[in-house]
C-alpha cells in the first residue's frame, strides 16, 4: 500500500497519536497539519479494520477541501470515505452513513445534531467512532460546537465510560485566550488541553526544517501620515452633535469619541435602553447615530464617497416611513445636509491618506506579474468599498490587479453563497484573479494558493488572527504589510500581538515541560470544574427560560413599538425556526421579495420576506412547511418583549424568558380546519 510521505517534523508530531494517545498537533499555517492527520487516520484504519474516523471542520467549504485535497487522494483507494455538510442529502441518514463508512468528513454541527437526534437513522454515539480529528481545534472553548461535542466526551470520561474515541486536534496557534501574563496564558493552554483531553505536541528536534518549509514573510509597517484636514468627517460629527442636542432631554448616557468602536458600543446600549423604555426618541436617534459612526469608520479607512453611499442607502430605505417628529427630524437633517456632503465627498484634496499608501504598497508588490495577494479588511462593507476603489483606481488597473471579494457564507445581504466562495477561490487558484479582498474568512483553513503579498488594512484582531493572516504569505520572499497611521491603534495592536505570539510559545513550552502526573492531575481538575459549571449553567438557563408564562409576554415591534403578538402564539420548528401560528398575525405585516437560499431543506422551503405593516422593519420571512402550511418565521432581534416586570430585548431565541412549545403539525391543521375532521 502506498505510503504518505512526511517531513521529519511531521513524523515527530504524530508519534504520540500513532501510539493511540490524545494529542493536539501545533504547527504553523502551511506546516502540513492536515497531511499529518491523514497519515494518522491511514495508520489507524490499517491497524484496526473495523475502526471508524470522523474528521470535524468548522466551516462548510472545508468539508470538500479536505475530501478533495487530502483524504480521498491518500485514503480513497483503501477506505470508504463520505463527506457530509448541511446541503448533503446524507445528513438525513447520518447514523446509517456512519455504519457504512470508514471515514466521515463533516461540519462539527452535523455531528452535534446527530448526537442529539433520537431517530435511529440519524443518531450516532461518540463511541461509534474510534478517532475524532478536530480541525482548527483552538476553537474548542466556551459555547463553540467543538466544545459541546467534547463536553460530552469529558463527562463520559469522568463517569468512567470505556471505548471513547481517540482525539487528534490540529491548530496553528492555541493563543493566550486574552491573557497578557505567562501565568494566564499557561492557564488558557491547559484549559484547551483539558477541553480536548489531550497533550499538545510540536517539533523539538526539527525546528530548522520546519522554518525552511514554512518561511515567515518579511514584515513591513507602511506608515501613513496623520490626516490633516477632514471636512467631510467634521461635517458628519457636526450633524451627530445636532442629534445629541435633539435627544439631550432624554439621554443621560455619556457617549465616547465619535468614530470609534467605543462610541458604537455606547449607542448600541442607548438603543437598547430606548427600546426597553419604549422611547422612540432614544431608540431612533441611537440607531441613526450608529449609522453615522459606521460612516465615520468607513471615511477613516476608505473613501468619502463610500461613507456617503452608506448613509444614502440607509436613508433611502427610511424615506417613506416617517412615523413621528423624530423620523421627520432625522430624515430632514440628512436631506438638508446632503448637497454639502456630496460636495465635500467629491473634493479629492481631502481624500484619505491611507488609500494613497495602500495604493503605493499594492503597486510596489504587484510589479511582478506573477504576484498573488490578499488584502484583509475588517467588515463586509469594508471589502465592498475597497473592491470599488481598486476597480476605479487607474494605477492599480495599470498594475494588472484583478480583484474579487471573499467574505463569509450566509443568507444576509452582504454574505456570499458557498458556491460564490468556491468559484472565487477556484478563479484565484487558476490565475483569473490575483488579489482577494477578504474578511477574516481567508485567515484560516481555506485552501488558498501561496501568496507573496498579504496586506492588513484597518484591522484590530487578536494574535491568532494575525498569525493566521501572516501565514498566508508563504511564498518565497513574501511580504506581510500593515498599512496604518503612525502610533495608531492598528500599529499598537499589531505590536501587542507580536508579544502575545511569543507569550503563546512560552506558555505551550511550559505546559509541555510539566511533569506528566502534574499535567494530568491539572487536566482532571479543570475537566471536573467544567462539568460542574455546565450543570449549573444549564439549571440557570432552564430557570430563565421558564421565568414567565408565554401568555404574559407581549411582542413589540422594535422600531415603531406596535404590539403585534403574544408569547403563546410562538412555536419552534426543527429546534431552530420560531413561527407565529396566530391567524391574526397576518394583519400586522406585509410581504416583500422572495427569499432564495442556497441549501434545500427536507420539510420546509423559504417564502417571502415579512415587514412590519406600520413601519416596514424587516421581521423575518415566511416558511412553507410540508409544502402546504405557510407561517411567518420571526427574527427575535426585530422585537422587544414586554413582561409583567419590564421590556427587554434578546439577541437569540435561546435568550427569551419563556418556554416555546414545539410546533405540532396535526394539532395546527386540526385547530384551523375543525369542520374538515367532523365530516
List how many beta strands DSSP finds. Answer: 24
User: Measured on Cα atoms, how large is the radius of gyration?
Assistant: 27 Å
User: Could you give the distance between the termini?
Assistant: 70 Å
Our count of helices gives 23
Oligomer: single chain
The CATH level-2 architecture of the largest domain is identified as: 3-Layer(aba) Sandwich
State the name of the first-level CATH class of the largest domain.
Alpha Beta
Strand content: 15-25%
The strand line-up of the biggest sheet is 3-4-2-5-6-1-7
Structural class: alpha/beta
Which stretches of 5+ consecutive residues score pLDDT under 50? none
Indicate the percent of residues in helices. Answer: 40-55%
The CATH topology label of the largest domain is Rossmann fold
What's the domain count? Answer: 4
The CATH homologous superfamily of the largest domain: P-loop containing nucleotide triphosphate hydrolases
Describe the global form. globular
Main beta sheet strand tally, sense and closure: 7 strands, parallel
* Average pLDDT over all residues: 91
